[in-house]
User: What shape does this take?
Amino acid sequence: MEMNTNSPLVIKNVDILTMADNKIRTNKTIVIQDGRISAIHDGAVDTGKFLNVIDGKGKTVMPGLINMHIHLGDNKDDLLLYLANGITAIRNMWGYEGFRLGPWLFGARVFNHLQLKKQIDEGKITGPAIFTAGPLLDGNPPFFPRPMYLHALENRKQIEQVIRDQAAKGYDFIKFYSGLSKQSFEDIVDVAKHYELPVAGHVPDAVGLRRVLALKVQSIEHLYGFFNPYHPESNIKKEDIKKLAGMAAAHHVSNCPTLIANERISNVKRQNEFENEKQMDYVSVRNKKAMRFLLKESNKLYEKQGIQGNHAYMEDLFYIVGQLQREGAGILMGTDKATPYVVAGFSEHLEMKLLSEAGLNNYEVLKAATINAAKCLKKEAEMGTVEIGKKANLILTGTNPLFDLKAVHSHFGVIKDGIYYSKEKCDEMLYKIKAACSNKKNAPT
Assistant: This one.
């Protein structure tokens, strides 16, 4: 279906899951103009005057998904893989500003993330909206090699300079890491507040979960702080998890469990299973080799330290997620793209399945991927629900996703900033990527 991009887009006879609540609004007509939802009408509307009309009979419209923890750069096709799978916004957790040898050797293509964000916002490149941190802020010595885009910080003067620079460049938030001292972490929070920049990241070992929650950070990643695979002696006792989950809720600190990353990061026992997943059809030979290398090296690191990999804690992580949900803390859908066997666009649906296994019902899982994410980003006036005035970032599903989450993955089309990517268009994008990864050149029939 060819669309006239200068005319409004109308979806008629459609049901709506707004995600403002768990009710389905039936038989609606949505009018989209200039990239936003301009009207939602009850029942049938005369659509004869409109050039771009989609008949949504028997289908449901819901908000596009928001992946709140990715690392963008290790696959040139990531942006299209996200969009074709219904992900209309991503939060990039480590900002790059151009080529460096270190990241390239690790398999990264090394985008300039601020430039890429601008190009997408201006419609010059097709892909999800990007919210990005700047280069990583860690202690000295840092966890990752210095040639990576990071700052090894020791004093407030350095912190002030780095955050001032990232604010001036236009980064959306500050990413902190586990090696920071207590003083440096508190200085980061204090300085970032001056520039109205949120902070998010790994709970520093020297700080601990309680203090990080008390300082009201934007989000905690991977459930670190509740558990620490590198220092299991510091894991929060089961009887204390409920109280800390309640503290997270009270201080409006979101939690991004990245269960799929925890499940896979060094899980050599399940490697063959991961290798044979359908999502691997969309990974290049080069990136498959990088995944195998990273899995092997991660496992060697754990073995060298005589500790268990993250996957050994999955039942504990399910329990933590359940407690966070029961206490009303914000749970986010994120995948930690760049972890071995985590593929853009496909791993989100695997993450949603794991959140279900942790005890969340379908509505709660969808909240983690939509309105919870929008609230965490403080963009709930722009995205996260289907309402008049919001950006038209939507998914058209064949059945009610509250009944079956698979409906989100097997959608009938995606709308990003008011532009409609039909199921056929999404399939075409995916086919081209799959064919390139398998060196096939024949077009679909």
The domain at 65-376 is CATH 3.20.20.140 (TIM Barrel).
